[in-house]
Structures are given as C-alpha cells and as structure tokens.
C-alpha cells in the first residue's frame, strides 16, 4: 500500500495544485457570469410580468451595466439612467419640432450624435457613458417615434421603463448576491500600491525599463481616480472618505514625480562617471528610503525626524566633496539633488500620513481626521478634482465621424425604403458612439462586428431549434443560459471583450424572448442583415477617420504637452501645480495605452513626455519662489527672462529658441547666490532636462525648423 502511494511531489499532486490554482484564479469571472445570468433572467421575468413590449431592452441594459464590483454597477447605472432620460427628452423634442420632416429630423439627429460623441471623448469613465446613452437613446426612441408620431409618448415611457427595470435588476443582484464593494477594492489597491512604491524607491528589485515603471505609476493614478469616483455611489458615508482618497492620490502624484526626477538625476551622474558624488547622494537617499521598512504607523514620525537633520547632513556631504577637489561649478548636480532629496522627504512624509489616515478611516475616524489635518498643513495645494485633458481636434474628428456615420446610415434607410434599414441606423450609431473613447476603436469595432455575426447566428439556433420546445419560463431560462454564459465569458477576457459585447447585444436582440413565442425567419434575416450593415458602416467610418496611433496623433500630443509647459509659465499660480500634474498625467496615460515602450520611436517620444514633468514642475516652483520670497532684483529679472524663453521654446520649438532658452537659464544660474539654493536647483533641473531631451523634443514637433534640427 505504501509503495503504491503517489508521492506528494509527484505528477498527480502537481496537476492537482495547478488545476486548483487555475480554478481559484477564475472565481471572480465565474461569479460575474453567475450574477449576470441571474440579473438577466430577473429582468426578463419582470418584463414579461409587466407585459413590456421588448424584454430584450431590459436584458441588454443588464449586459451593458453589469460589472464585477457593485460600485461600478451603481455608477454606470446612474449615468445610463441620466443619459437615457436626456436622450428621451431630446427625442420627444425633435419629434415635436419635425413631425413630418424626416430630413430635418435626421439632420438634427446627426448634430445631436456629434455633440454626444464629443462629450463622451471629453469626459472620462462612466460620465463618458452618459453622453453615449444620450445619443443612442435618440435612435431607439426618436426614430421609431417618427414612424408613429402619435405614439411618441408611449414609446418613450416604455423604453425608459425597460431601461430602468434593467438598471434596477443589475443593481439589486450586484449588491445582494456575493457583493464586492468597490471601496474595499480601492483600499486594497492603495495598500498594494504603497507596498510596490516602497520596494521601488528602495531599489530592492532591478528595473531595466524605467519608462515602463513610470508609466505604470501614471496608470495607477488614473485607474484609482476612476475607481474612486465610482465608489462614491456605494454609501452615504463615502464622500468624506472619497475626499481623503483624492488627497492621497494627489500626494502620490507629487512624490512619484519627484522620485522620477531624482532617478533621472542619479542616472545622469552615473553616465557622467561621477561615482563619488553619486555615492554620497545615494547614502542620503537610502537613509530616507530605509525608513519605509518600519511599521507604517511610525513611518511619518521617523521621516519627520530624519528631515530635521537632513540639511546638516547634506551640508557635511557638500563640504566633503569640496575637499576631494570637486569644483564649485561641478557641484550644481549635488545642489539640485539636495533640493530634490529634501522635497522628496517632505512629500514622502505627507504621502505616508495620508495613506495611514485613509487606511484607518473605518476604525479610528477621529484619529484619522487629526492625522489628515496635520498632513494637510504641509500640503501646498489639494485640487478639487482630477483634471482631464483631451485634444480638441481629436474631439472634433470623433464628433464628425459619429455625425457622418449617423447621416450615412439614415440616408441608406430612407433611400432604400427598407424597414430593416432602421436596424442599420441603430447599430451604426451604437458601434460609432459606444467605442469612440476606446484606445483602439477600430480594432474594438471589428471585434464587436464579429461578435454581432456570431450572436445573430446563435440567436437563430436558440430561437428556431431550442426555444420552440420551451413550454415554461424555467425551460426558457435553461434554453438561453448557455448562450448568455458564453457571451459573458467572452466579456471577461480583455482580448475578446468587444466580441462578447456584440455577441450578447445581437443575441438578445434577435432571440425570440417574449410572453408569446413567435418566430419570423424573414424578419430575422432582414433585421440581422440590417444590423450587420450598420456595423459595417461604423467600421468603415473608423477606418477612414481614426487618428489613433498615427504620426499626426503623436504630433498633436507633443504640441499639447508643450502647451502644458507654456501654461506652467504663464497661467495664474493658484491651483496650477495640481492642474499641471493631473492633466499631464492624463495626456501621457492616453499615449501609453496606445503605444509600446519597446518601439524605439515611441521610447524617444516617451522620454520627452516624461521630461515634461521635470521642466513643468521646476518652472512652477520657480514662479512660487518668485512670488513667495524676496529674491535679488537682478535674479528675479533674469528668472522672468528665463521663463519667457522657455515658454517661447515650447510654444514654437526650433534650434535658435533652444539655444536662447539654455543661455537664459545659464545666466539665471550664474545670478544665484548661496541663499537661493532652491532656485538654483530648479534652474539646473530645467537646463539638464532640456539638454538631455533636446533631440527627442524635435521628434514630436510639427515645425520645419524642428525637423531640420533633428536631422
């Protein structure tokens, strides 16, 4: 018996552990599939109970709104209701204005679609989705109402009731069956980010691709901001905690940017071979980061104690460097690093205080409030919200694409005289609007179209061969379940998400789901053909008008980022730093989603994008120093000249303006005195960033002189 036993490290146990781990990893997806199925069947049953005309509308609403986390469901449901309500109101208004004028109605509809698409591109997260639904609702309410103007109000109230029923079912199921609250996920993400950042700044793990690391930090900020906004829907006590999460995210943005500047400076010292200075600075740097290994509750106090003695330690290190024959001019890097180290220490202290306050919110609210009040005393500014930044030309092109797509599909419907042409208009609008804000819309719409064809075929199989034998609601659920589960499974896979959305939408549209079973094969073929024609029109519009990933898009992004530096030089100071941080991260984050750091051209562009953080922050700190301290008149005048030359360079870059800016900054450096060390450090950071990334800056400029300089 013992000899025949399978060893614990044998193939059976390895297989068992592997399969167990794989199943454990699939639990969230399986749970989401189960909740989706329950919510869809609940919406279907209630729609039949209330004798609504199209149960499929409520079921599709569930598939669109349902998310793994309850906060996401509530947020998406809220914005879907808001968008649907506005869309219904506009539909009724347009039908009332143009009851017998289809051309004028469709022209106004195309303008409304363009406006809603522009809003979906400008805003982020589920706020964007509200604009999508406001446009989409015009198609599912307004167009049928134009065929029967006397039934406009009935159509509007029925569609709105079906949408509301779907929202209610999705929200109840998500919050009752195995609820996964978003606030808990956000707090867990904060803990994970704190641990990852602690490891990163202590350099415990080698990092070969620093651009990817910085972009991951940027992506974390954007993702957490989106989750934080959605978590506000979960309870009445969230707003205060939500405000603290926003403050924590802002603190992380600040300290991670300073860390990047420090890391860049250390890299320059290593490349220049100045090992003595680098080791001296790293000794002080590690004195700060080693504190992160202590208990989290003690870290802020230990950082504060270290900061009180930091100035003396840095002065001692500087005197030691002078003794080993470092010339004063070569100590500019040390002075810049000293200023950055002190700033990093202050910002890290603020970040850890806010982190402790947020993570201990539920158990020690009073202590957390005291802690956060102490932290905010040292925070120069806390923004009221995260600032999004979108290229207006990109917004206009997306709006134009949606408007033209709606007009083309509408003309097809009118001139063909085909009743199912209405399906073409509906799905052309859905595909044009729903994926306009996607990082790769053309690829996503292609996947949606494949899923649509698959969903139509599966809808035919289910309706014709299976549903005809379902003689009760229970049997109807059994008939639909495999297809719904398969479509939901596709949506849980990132590479098949668009395909899954198309499959579910077309399947639920063309499956015969009603109180009285009836199947019209000719109507099914016409409807499916019309829907696929609509998807084809949307695909064609995206192929014609889709700047994502093009050189033109890189040029526009480069111009937008240069404009960020110009704004940093010229805009009013109150709230400027927070606005600059968040809007620049939003721009860089959008670029990172669509490009790869393994591409040499993209890496060069990325280097310039990241240098914008250094230049812009240093410029803002210079302006704050001019406003807050009594600088010598000669230095203040020189700084103003430097700021103007930097703004001129970023406004219209070329070789001449680059040399002018560098000369102006160098003049300001020479005008600095020992009492203006912070000013000197910021000037040196600007100069080294311009020198290091001058070549990359010309790659993303659209001026002829810039391209000549690059060659």
TrEMBL record:
The keyword Kinase does not apply. It is found in: Cell membrane. Keywords: Cell membrane, Membrane, Transmembrane, Transmembrane helix. It holds the Pfam family FUSC. It is a multi-pass membrane protein. This is FUSC family protein. GO terms for molecular function: transmembrane transporter activity. GO terms for cellular component: plasma membrane. The chain crosses the membrane at residues 21-42, 78-98, 104-123, 130-147, 159-178, 393-415, 445-466, 472-489, 496-513, 519-545.
């Amino acid at each position: 018996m013992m000899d025949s036993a399978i060893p614990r490290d044998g193939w059976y146990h390895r297989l068992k552990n592997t399969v167990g781990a794989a199943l454990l990893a699939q639990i969230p997806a399986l749970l989401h599939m189960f909740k989706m199925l329950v919510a869809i069947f609940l919406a279907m049953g209630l729609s039949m109970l209330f004798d609504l005309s199209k149960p499929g509308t409520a079921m599709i609403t569930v598939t669109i709104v349902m998310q793994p986390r309850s906060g996401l469901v509530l947020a998406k449901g809220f914005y879907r209701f808001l968008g649907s309500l506005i869309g219904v109101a506009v539909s009724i208004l347009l039908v009332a204005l143009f009851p017998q004028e289809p051309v004028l109605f469709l022209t106004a509809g195309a303008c409304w679609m363009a406006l809603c698409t522009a809003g979906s591109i400008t805003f982020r997260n589920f706020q964007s989705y509200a604009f999508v639904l406001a446009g989409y609702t015009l198609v599912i309410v307004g167009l049928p109402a134009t065929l029967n103007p006397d039934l406009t109000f009935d159509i509007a109230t029925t569609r709105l009731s079906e949408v509301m029923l779907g929202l209610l079912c999705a929200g109840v199921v998500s919050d009752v069956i195995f609820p996964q609250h978003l606030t808990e996920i956000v707090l867990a993400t904060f803990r994970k980010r704190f641990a990852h950042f602690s490891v990163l700044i202590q350099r415990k793990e080698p990092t070969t691709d620093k651009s990817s690391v910085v972009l991951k930090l940027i992506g974390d900020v954007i993702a957490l901001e989106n989750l934080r906004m959605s978590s506000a829907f979960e309870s009445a006590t969230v707003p205060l905690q939500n405000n603290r999460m926003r403050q924590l995210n802002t603190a992380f943005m600040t300290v991670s940017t300073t860390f990047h500047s420090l890391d860049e400076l250390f890299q320059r010292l290593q490349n220049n071979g100045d090992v003595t200075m680098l080791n001296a600075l790293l000794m002080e740097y590690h004195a700060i980061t080693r504190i992160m290994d202590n208990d989290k509750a003690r870290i802020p106090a230990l950082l504060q104690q270290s900061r009180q003695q930091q100035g003396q330690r840095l002065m001692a290190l500087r005197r030691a460097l002078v003794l080993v024959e470092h010339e004063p001019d070569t100590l500019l890097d040390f002075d810049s690093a000293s200023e950055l180290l002190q700033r990093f220490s202050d910002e890290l202290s603020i970040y850890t205080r806010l982190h402790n306050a947020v993570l201990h919110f539920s158990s020690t609210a009073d202590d957390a409030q005291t802690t956060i009040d102490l932290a905010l005393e040292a925070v120069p500014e806390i923004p009221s919200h995260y600032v999004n930044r979108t290229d207006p030309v990109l917004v206009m092109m997306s709006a134009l694409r949606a408007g033209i797509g709606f007009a083309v599909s509408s003309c097809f419907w009118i001139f063909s005289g085909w009743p199912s042409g209405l399906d073409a208009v509906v799905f052309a609008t859905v595909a044009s609007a729903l994926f306009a804000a996607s990082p790769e819309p053309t690829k996503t719409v292609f996947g949606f179209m494949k899923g649509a064809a698959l969903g139509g075929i599966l809808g035919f199989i289910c309706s014709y061969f299976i549903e005809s034998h379902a003689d009760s609601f229970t049997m109807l659920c059994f008939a639909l379940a495999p297809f719904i589960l398969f479509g939901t499974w596709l949506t849980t896979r990132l590479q098949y998400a668009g395909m899954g959305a198309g499959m579910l939408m077309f399947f639920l549209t063309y499956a015969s789901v009603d109180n009285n079973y009836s199947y019209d094969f000719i109507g099914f073929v016409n409807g499916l053909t019309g829907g696929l024609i609509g998807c084809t029109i949307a695909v064609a519009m995206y192929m014609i008008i889709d700047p994502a990933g093009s050189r033109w898009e890189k040029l526009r992004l480069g111009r937008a980022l240069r404009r960020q530096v110009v704004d940093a030089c010229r805009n009013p100071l109150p709230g400027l730093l927070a606005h600059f941080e968040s809007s620049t991260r939003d721009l860089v984050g959008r670029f990172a989603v669509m490009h790869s750091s393994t591409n040499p051209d993209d890496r060069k562009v990325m280097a310039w994008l990241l240098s914008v953080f250094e230049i812009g922050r240093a410029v803002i700190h210079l302006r704050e120093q001019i406003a807050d301290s009594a600088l010598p008149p000669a230095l203040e005048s020189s700084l103003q000249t430097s700021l103007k030359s930097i703004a001129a360079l970023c406004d219209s870059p070329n070789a001449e303006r680059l040399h002018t800016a560098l000369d102006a900054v160098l003049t300001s450096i020479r005008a600095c005195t020992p009492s203006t060390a912070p000013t000197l450090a910021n000037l040196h950071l600007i100069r080294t960033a311009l020198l290091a990334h001058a070549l990359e800056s010309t790659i993303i400029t659209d001026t002829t002189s810039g391209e000549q300089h690059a060659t």
